[in-house]
Amino acid sequence: MRLRLFRVLGKILRILTFGLGAGYLIACLWIYLNQEQMLFHPTVLAHDFVYPFTQPATEVFVPVEGATLALVEFTPPRPHGVVLYLHGNGATLQAAEILAEPFLRRSYAVVMLDYRGYGKSTGRITSEAALHQDVYAVYAYVRQHYQEDQIIVYGHSLGTGLAIHLAANARPRMLIVESAYLSMRAMVAQQMPYIPLVLLKYPLRSDQWIGTVRCPISMFHGTEDEVIPYPSSERLRALSTAPTQLIPVVGGGHANLATFPIYQTTLDALLAPSVTAPTPQPTTRVIPHQRDRTHAAAPNGPIPPCTPCSA
Q1: Residue 14 above 60 pLDDT?
Q2: C-beta neighbour count of 250 within 10 angstroms
Q3: Are 276 and 173 in contact (CB under 8 A)?
Q4: Does an H or E element contain 61, and which?
Q5: Which of 21-25, 34-38, 106-110, 162-166 has the lowest mean pLDDT?
Q6: Could you tell me how far CA 31 lies from the centroid of its own chain?
Q7: Has residue 167 got a pLDDT over 80?
Q8: DSSP state of 211
Q9: Chain centroid to CA 103
Q10: Mean pLDDT of the chain
Q11: Residue 164 DSSP SS3
Q12: C-alpha distance from residue 266 to each of 14, 73, 153, 214, 252 (Å)
């Protein structure tokens, strides 16, 4: 009787083990196939959507392989330079004016893009490599109008990894990151340790790239960030070989750092004309009202390897 009972229990255990294993494999397959939906949260806009900006802006459409990227460019009178802003995974150009305001107030132009599938940008994100190539294409567009020592690359949240990768392979004046992650791989390992890391299509290894950035780096991070923990920036700073400052925003969260005085005073110092950039070269561009649209093609080809930037 006992032997029969043990056999039945053993069979039940084998069935449960098989079921759990099959369920785990199915869950891993679902995660692999749905990473884009988990990581990217785009809002799609009609091509004729009118942004509710109060300041003049230019819409620019940059064709890339498999998509057309939507950009917005704000240009104040006599800008000291330009900020290429790479936003987070839930933002779109609808918020561009708000995000650009700290830089416009300090007389810097701002170029901001929507990643493919976001806003008016067409196509969809299918690989990390395509994301990087899209950012390179926009950087090439900015280089048509500004010298590299006038370009500041700024990344927030998701955009920090893209900004670090760009700065590691280009020669911008400065790199500024806000709420940076060590890598997407590290975040998944911490938050979902049961997921095999080999499944990740978007590891976004900022930890591997930051050591090859040669431009000055400034890092803002809120100590109460509930999305990307503050120690992520501490670990990134330790890996940097360029002049790097980490500015802890005490009490700051993930997306409210601009409301803190230390953020504003640090930007004042970073963006002071005598510190950040020479006088811009004159151009003949006319910046129309934001309802006008300029269509521009970015030149093909890779960004030149990074060389040490001027301090």
Answers
A1: yes
A2: 10
A3: yes
A4: strand 58-64
A5: 21-25
A6: 22
A7: yes
A8: G
A9: 17
A10: 85
A11: helix
A12: 61, 24, 16, 20, 15
Q: Residue 113 carries which DSSP code?
A: E
Residues contacting residue 30 through CB under 8 Å, at least 6 positions apart = none
Q: Is 125 strand, coil or helix?
A: coil
Closest CA to 215 of 257, 178, 181, 245: 245
Q: What is the pLDDT of residue 307?
A: 37
The CA distance from 22 to 25, in Å, is: 5
Q: At which residue do the structure tokens 């940008």 appear?
A: 121
Note the pLDDT tens digit of each residue in 99-158: 999 999 999 999 999 999 999 999 999 999 999 999 999 999 999 999 999 999 999 999
How many whole angstroms separate alpha carbon 280 and alpha carbon 277? 8
For 193-212, what is each residue's pLDDT tens digit? 777 767 888 999 999 999 99
Q: Indicate the pLDDT class of residue 188, thresholds 50, 70 and 90.
A: confident
**Segment 254-274 mean pLDDT:** 94
Structure tokens at 47: 């091509």
Copy the structure tokens of residue 150: 């006038």
* Start-end of H helices in 64-122: 96-104
Angle between helices 128-143 and 158-168 (to 10 degrees): 60
**Side chain identity at residue 12, one-letter code:** I
**Paired strand residues for 154:** 85, 176
Residue where the block lists tokens 């819409």: 59
Residue 29 DSSP one-character state? H
CA geometry: angle 67, 72, 73, nearest 5 deg: 130
Q: Which residue has the tokens 């500024």?
A: 176
